[in-house]
Design a protein that fits this description.
It contains eleven helices and 19 strands. The chain has about 350 residues and is α+β, with helices and mostly antiparallel strands.
Amino acid sequence: MKLFGFGSKDIGIDLGTANILVTLKGKGIILNEPSVVAINRKTQNIVATGEEAREMLGRTPEEIKAVKPLKDGVIADFTATQLLLKNIIERIAQRYNIGKPRVVVGVPSGITEVEERAVEESVLQAGAREVYLIEEPMAAAIGANMDIAEPNGNIIVDIGGGTTEVAVISLGGIVVSNSIRIAGDELDEDIINYVKREKNLAIGETTAEEIKKEIGCAMPLVTEASMEVRGRDLTTGLPETIQITSTEVEAAIRESIEKIVEVVKQTLERTPPELSSDIMEKGIILSGGGALIKNLDKLLSICTEMPVYVAEDPLQCVVKGTGKTLEDLEKLKTVLINSRKRK
């Protein structure tokens, strides 16, 4: 008997540090919003989630806390994660008339058993019937249309909000993998610190992220770009507007980018020679939001002497991979870390 019968509504979740994406079998991606939740401290009720809650970061009154419940790709605030997942699953269940769905969740490859259980518990508590976990780089590879079942090597570098994960995949399994907790959020932090140090200006996470998206680059751009940034002057305490250039942003994030390049090189060094020759031929695939940093593919290509390609829709690779896994669960069962049913 096929595990997923016709008409069963199953959902795939990319539980990212920066964004949560949800795909519904037969419908594609139905939700993509920041992993932020605003909670009333007294009642423990959700005030807002997603974009609305993100707008509240750093702006809430005493009785409301706006939090990013996932840090470095893992659950940092269990209660907030549970509330967020419950809210999302309930909303989807109502909108699409789903009973108790089966859920596949993408999790970081360096996740501990305790963290695994925390994710499973959250999803089961949120109303799922069964939970399956899949490692994010594996889900990203499936979502990037890599042929993971073949006996040849593929390498994927998934740069998310909290973690950068590198995995060499062959025969439906991860042969070598490496993961560091340096990714998009760390780059935002670098920009905040740089602006504070060099420009004497305090800016928030949201502004730093905008700078990264607009003019962030791993190597100098052909034509230097610049943008206006508003923040608080650290000397006067008053609002101030300054200009920042792409060259300055490159300098700000250089150290973190070098660490990401280093982890890719370390993974390649540990790859069996037979798979290395396959990778040489096919190149490295970049996925996740970090793949969009200008010239990162060029820098990686220079440092590894290999072709580097950015996956199509890099931000959606993991969630697409969870969706494809749902469609062919029997065949892809080997790629799952676990499966838990509601008792």
